[in-house]
Amino acid sequence: MSRLSSKVESELQPLLRQLLKSIKERISGAPSVECAEEILLHLEETDENFHNYELVKYLRNYIDTALGSVIDEETEKCTSAEGRSLGSGQDTLVQQVTRKTRESEEYKEMMKSLKNTMMIVVESLINKFEEDQLKKEELHRRKQHEQHTSYCMDSCSDSGSSFNQSYTFLNQEQLQIIVGRMDPSQPKEVRREALQTLCCAPPSDVLNCECWVTLRRHLATALSDPDPTLNDKSLRFYAKTFSSSTFTTTRETYTSLAKHLESCFTSQQSPVPTLFAGIDITSPDIVQLLKKFRLLNEFQKEVPSFWIRHPEKFMEEIVESTLSLLSVTHEQNLRGETSRRVLEPVHFLALLDTKASWFNKWMVKLINIKEP
């Protein structure tokens, strides 16, 4: 038996939900994911109501049922073998019975079934939570739209734009027009206005549009454009998406930004300074490149918090795009001429995150995930 019955799973869901609601304030007040994990690990020590939670009672009864006979049998064996009562050698007896019980096949099977079942229960709760959030967002969006109370920030209403109206939510037709105006063949002013309007829309609307693939390509082109306004507005859209989007949206944005940064070092049109010359932080191009790496690095530090909810689906694309970026090596560096070595992505990341805190967080979280 690799997991408990579906009936047990349905019984555990409301019990787990009740526990999470009871400790919601303590968890949400934690300054980091690591602190939240510590709170959960020491909940029995710090929460006087711990043994009153229905989930704890349920699990205790389940363990008693699964291991009660094993504990009784091992207790009898140990007391008989050593010829003493439970009184004089109680500490030694408890340690022996505990060790024998944990080594038993019943214990291993119980832990395996319980772990698999709880993973399914947690995944189910997460899916339900995301569905509820989407419904709430949709309801809120409709309400805002019907009451005509949703307005863009002042800077999003540039004069001369045919989209010069106060709105935040865009329908598919409007998004398609914006995508057309962001095409590199359009005049720069038209592209600026389209990108400015795009910055006012909810990221979820933009990434769920039918023409997202084309739009993503235009955004990447704007990031590489020598025009500082286009470059800056495109980067602002990426930043907004990182800070306010769902898992799927964030993944799309991260991989797109990582791919763009990779192209900055592989394209002949994007000259990169040499190691000998160093980085000129007064150069607008270098400043913009550092901004992009800083945005990428800020999100890298937050990636482990997503792994808790999306350990497989999320990790793969994020890790692969990161490794692809860091493995970029300029052909000039392969010739072995130190004076002409070109700076690589890893140099820029090291400059912004000198202790590689993002990498440490990834490794710690990866170890925790792989631990049985």
Automatic annotation (TrEMBL):
Residues 97-142 form a coiled coil. Residues 173-363 form the BROMI middle region domain. Keywords: Coiled coil. Residues 12-138 form the BROMI N-terminal domain. It holds the Pfam family BROMI_N. This is Uncharacterized protein. It comes from Scyliorhinus torazame (Cloudy catshark). The lineage of its organism: Eukaryota, Metazoa, Chordata, Craniata, Vertebrata.
